[in-house]
Each structure stands twice: as structure tokens, then as C-alpha cells.
Design a protein that fits this description.
501 residues; alpha+beta; 2-methylcitrate dehydratase PrpD; 60s Ribosomal Protein L30, Chain: A; 2 domains; 20 helices; 9 strands
Length: 501
Amino acid sequence: MHVHSVRTRRSADEFPRDQHLAWKIAEVAADPVAVSADTEAMVINRVIDNAAVSAASVIRRPVTVARRQAQAHAVSTGANVFGIGGGYSAEWAAWANGVAVRELDFHDTFLAADYSHPGDNIPPLVAVAQQLGIGGNDLIRGLATAYETQINLTRGICLHEHKIDHVAHLGPSVAAGLGTMLKLDTETIYQAIGQALHLTTATRQSRKGLISSWKAYAPAWAGKVAIEAVDRAMRGEGAPSPIWEGEDGVIAWLLGGPEKVYEVPLPGPGEEKRAILDSYTKEHSAEYQSQAPIDLARRLRDRIGDLSQIATVVLHTSHHTHVVIGTGSNDPQKFDPDASRETLDHSVMYIFAVALEDGTWHHERSYAPERAHRPETIELWNKISTVEDPEWTRRYHSSNPDDKAFGCKAVVTLKNGEVITDELAIADAHPLGARPFARDNYVNKFTVLSDGVIEPQEQERFLSVAQGLANLKPGSLSELNPLVDAVVLDKAPTTPDGIFQ
């Protein structure tokens, strides 16, 4: 692994193109290194994981709207939209499927200097592969590159510190992954990466205050834009450059400024792309920093007993957790029972209260309006707060996998003065957790979430195809699309017409 120092350069500086970060990433993407067996297996796990959460979200309103937009772009030889037949223009299929994957905040994650959900790379790459008749092995190679790119950008460049949304790392990673999958040359990939980054930098207001459905659309937008960027680059069009390092580039004006130096690790020539193995999926449908608190609440509830006797709960946690989903955000919406689902899944106070009361977490029932409005829940919810603990912040940023942690310590004070404390560093489903997710867990997640949505025979067909992804021949990737029962799709909400018909 090579670590590249990335900083702003003046236009007058001598700065050869092969030193640009976009070029370095393009070189990694163009390197035809083989994918290891464990990386291939994890790619397949995440394809199954994405299908699971897409099945669970398929008739939610944002997913329905995105699907109907895509259906207005039917083509004879196109990509598949999750759950339905027909062919659709790849960028619109990626859009619809990206929203379905992201809607429930229920797929994979990688946290370091910034945040990421690298499973967001899967819908755009699958869509392009389906439209162009790519085989399963090349799709796997492309996804390994996409994960490698997004995860390493997330390790090296903090976006949220400057209120830039994390999809700014996703646009370049999709472009790089497509470059690998399509076996493009370094020059073409370089131009596509620059264009994709230029168009996917947006502010984090999408995750602040009253959070809307755009939180699900944002990564789908990045995937759609990246597909279009690669298409333009393949036709010989260029991009702003150097996109990260330029005098008016991303670092100079959107991130740390001209004096800031970022250190971005990337594989060297011939080095395997294994970053996907450092990412982790979710057992619970909630922001990743809530995964360990949910497991901790489930463990604590029996020790506490009568929850009405709680006076206060203080969660000692990292800076990120405190300011993004905790009371350090200063968002009153995080205590509002009428808040959107997207807002509640970014309120660790709400999540901890419900997990304490129910001893479980469900992607629908735990967020239902009637659940959020229970008087006893509101009372408990308002007793919970977070504080930043420097040790948890240090562990959040640790480069040592055995030390890195995304959990918290809960200090529960009862009305009689008794104090109950417990802590959990990592979620049970984390690779180093109490119950690490393996293939059987991914299959079970798909089976559970698609129950009543996809017929059992179709579930089995999809799982068989997905687990044999590496052997899928060119032109057969449409088999990766599990069809949803028409009776289920008929229950999707009615939505107004838009421009696209």
C-alpha cells in the first residue's frame, strides 16, 4: 500500500499529471490484478445484502418514485430495475436501485476519517454491466476497485469536517470501478474520475435538521452522475483537472484549504484490492454508530428492570456519534416524535430508548409513528443524552482494527440513585463482534427481509445465481434481478406524475 500526499497546487506550479490523485486512482483501476477468493466472497455477500434491503424498501414512497422515474426510460437492451421486468437505461436503473438500497439505512458501512456506505457502488456497476452484457467476473473486479477507491478516500480525506456530504467519495469510486469493469485505459478513467468528483460535491444539509428522503437519493445521484461521466470520457471528453489539487479545486475551496495535506493510501502495482474486507454491514436498520448502542441496550434492559425508574441515561461516545446522531448535533428534531424516519434513524437517543423498551430493532415497526408517539417512549427518550469522550474519539479514528471502535459506554442513573454502567465497543455483527456476519447471515437477512415480498422459489433462484456470480457469462447478469410479487408492487403508494412519463 502506497500513501500519497495530496495538497493544493498553484496553476503555475509544475505538477505532472501522473502525480494527480485522480491519475493515481485511475492507475489502480486500470491494473488488471486478480481478485482474491475472500474478496470475491465478500463482494457476493454485499450483492445479497443489497438485494435484501431493496426487497424491504421496495414499496416505500422514495423507492417507488425513483422506480417510476426509471420506468419512463425504457430501452430494448437495458439494465434491470429491482423487482420488475423490462430493460431501462443504465443510469436510470442505477438511480432507482440506488435509492432502494439506501432508503432504509440498512446496508454496509466503512468509517474512518469520513463516512461511507460502499455498497452504494453496486447498483451503478450492475446496471452498466447488464446494459453492456458484461460477465460476472468482470463485475466482481469492478466492484473490488470501487470499494477500494471509496474506502481509501474515506481513510484519507475528511469531508464532513467541512460540511461536504460523503457521496463526494462515491462519484470517483463508481467511475473507477466502471473503468476496471469495462477495461478502460488510465487516461479515460482519469477523466471520468475528475468529472464524477466535480459533480458530486454537495453539503451535508442532507443529513442535518429535518432529514428528508434526499438522504436515500444522494448516493443514487452520485452513481447516475458517475455513469454519465464515464460515458463522456469514453467518447473522448475531458474533465476539470487537477480536480482535487487545483488552485480552484476541491481541496482549496471545499475542504481543508491550500495549506492542508491529505494522506491517501492506495494499492501499489500488482497489489490486491482487499479494502472491502475492512467494511461491515448492518444487522439493524439505523445509522452505523447506532449498531453497537442497540446491542448494548438489548443487553442492559434486563439489568435495569423497570424502565420507568430511570432518571437519566448518558451515552459516552465519540465526537462523530455525539455531533451527528447525538445531542451534540443540537438538532431539536432528534427529539420530535413527528420527525421523519430519516431523522429518527439519526437520533441515537430515540434508538436507544426504543431498543431498551423492545429488546429488538425492526426496520419498520421501530420507526412507526405510533411507536414514536408512545408516552412512555417519549419520556424515556428525553432522559437520554450523549457526551463526547476523548477515548471513544481516539478509538473511532484508530488505525488498529483490534482497537477501532464505534460504540459507547452507557451510564444509567436510577431514581433511587443507583448507577448501572455497561459499554460495547463494536456491534455484534461486526467482523470482530460477538456474532460476526458470515454468508449464512447474509442469506438469512435476504430471506427474512424478502419474506412476503419475493416468492420463495424466486428467492432461491436469486440466491443460487448470486452465489455463483463469478461464473455468470456475459449477457446473463439480468438473472441478478429478483422479481417482486406483483401483489406487493400493487401496494406501492400513488404518486403524482412528473416530467418523465
